Structures are given as C-alpha cells and as structure tokens.
C-alpha cells in the first residue's frame, strides 16, 4: 500500500506527487490518459491571472505565492530531466483596459509593478502591435511557461523517482470505501490502495466524488486556442486585449487564445472559434496575417464558483482530499495550490490560510 494515491495526472497532480516524494513518501499517480495531456497541455502558460485586479483575495493569495516559484521549478526540471519548460519573463502589455484606475490601485496595494505607459513606450516594447493605441498598461514582472514542456518535464522527473509509480491509461471507476474511510481506487487495471487519496482530476473530479454523495461544484468549460508559425521576434512578449491574448514562444511561434464555452465535455475544435481567434490575433498584431495557423485545439477547464478551487480534506471521509476547480488559472495557481494541500497532508504550517478553499461539511 502506498502512502498517497493521486487521481489525475495534470500539472496539479504531478506537482503534488513531486512534493510528496520529495518529502520521502511513496506515491501512486493514476491518470486515465497520459500525464500532462489534458487542460495542463491545452492552456497558454501565462503565470498570472489575465486581469489579476479583478479576482478575489483567495485567488490573489495563491497566485502571488506561485508566481515567484516558476523560475526555480523550471531550472530544477531542466537540470534533472534535460527538458526545458522555457520559463520566459518578458512582461505583459495590456491594450484597451476599461478599469485602469482599479488596476493601478490594486498594484499599489499589493506592491506589484504595473504602470501606464504612452504610445512611444508601447511601440518601443512591441513594434508589431496594431497601430492607433495611445497608451497601455505594462506589467514587467509577468512570466510565461511552455506548458506542454512543463508537463513533459514533470512526468519525466516522476518516472525517475523510485517512490513514485505512474499508472497511465488507467481509468478510475470508483473510490474504495472502508466504512468511513477511503483507501484507494478501483481502476481498469485493478485496485490501487493507499493510506490517503487525493482527487486532482480537473473537470472530471465532480463525477468521481458524486459516487460517494459529495457534490463538488466543478464543471467543464471549453477553451479553444490556435498556434501561428511565425519567425522569432515578431511578437516579443505577452499582449492582452479585450480578454484575448498572444503568447510568444522561444522559437517564434505565437499562441492566440482563448474561448470560453459552456458545452459540457465537448472538446471538438470549431471553425467559428478559429475565425474568431484569428481575427482577435490580427487585431493585436496585424502581421500575423502572413503567418500560417499551424495548430488549433480545445481543452476543458475545471470551472468553479468565482474560479476559487477546492483544496483540502473531504468532510465525512477519512483519508480523502481534493484539489480541483482552478478554472482558468490551473498553471497560475499550481505551485501554491499543491503546496497548500501538501502542507496539510504532512502536517506543516500552511503557506496561506486554507479556510477559503475548504469543502463545507
């Protein structure tokens, strides 16, 4: 029997496994597909909420703690696996923001560098930006990570660790109940037992917990993105306008995203979304019109009320815990969300107050 069993091999599940194994515990991780290939792969990798001043303190507490951890994590994974997650800290330009004063007030309150810059400064930082903007907001500390490579590096690191066993392409059918406790899961590959079970299954977490009478307010929210094949330097940093964004990669490719669609578990990419995303991208950087769209895909975010995740013990069931419902901010919140739960699992002082994320009795 393992010390811990984690259901879900996204970034949340893999970071949880990494931290528990670092602390000397044995861990089994169960994933119905391949680790890191669902929402963690499908997102963009911006290491901040898009408009952080519009979020609650519960989100801000986790995102503030997480943001500074990615450079260290990326460096560690590169050293240990040879896979570079490509953390880039090039800042973010906000074009056409309606609530500038609220943004600047938030920045002063949390001591975050965020300034209003004029057109000359805007186009000096991003010469390819669409003409006609007389100002922008500039956040110099924002970073981004190449999330598919982050997932690949985390998976490789876990495969190297003798205390971790990965069970991929392994469908969980039920939680194993032992009176008032949960002692593992029944799967397509047989029962896997553990002293403590953590559900990190993203949009699929609700169905698993519903089988034991727990109602978790998590739902799938589809997001579609496109990838342009561009030359290095066309887009230098993350640029955000009207809720849509461009994210440059180190090899010149540029991501454009994303949609928000309440369509259940439908992951079909649509021509309507492709046209909309393409138009949004060109409204930010018109020169992308000359760049082919190399890829178009969809993923399912784990939506939750106000985007606040559920993190902690599941009331009424000894040995059962959850970390799900991060909505648009799974990668953003992952270092803090996983650390907060691991602190509680192994008896350390929590990094932030855990009460806003608890499931109610």
From TrEMBL:
Annotated InterPro entries: FAD-dep_OxRdtase, FAD/NAD-bd_sf, Gly_oxidase_ThiO
EC number(s) stated in the UniProt entry for this protein: 1.4.3.19
Pathway stated in the Swiss-Prot or TrEMBL entry: Cofactor biosynthesis; thiamine diphosphate biosynthesis
Keyword Oxidoreductase: yes
UniProt-recorded Gene Ontology molecular function terms: flavin adenine dinucleotide binding; glycine oxidase activity
Keywords: Oxidoreductase, Thiamine biosynthesis
GO biological process terms held by the UniProt record: thiamine biosynthetic process; thiamine diphosphate biosynthetic process
Gene3D superfamilies assigned to the protein according to its UniProt record, in alphabetical order: D-Amino Acid Oxidase, subunit A, domain 2 (3.30.9.10), FAD/NAD(P)-binding domain (3.50.50.60)
Gene Ontology CC terms: cytoplasm
Entry keyword Oxidoreductase: yes
Domain FAD dependent oxidoreductase: 3-343
PANTHER family hit by this protein: GLYCINE OXIDASE (PTHR13847:SF289), SARCOSINE DEHYDROGENASE-RELATED (PTHR13847)
Protein name: Glycine oxidase ThiO
Gene designation: thiO
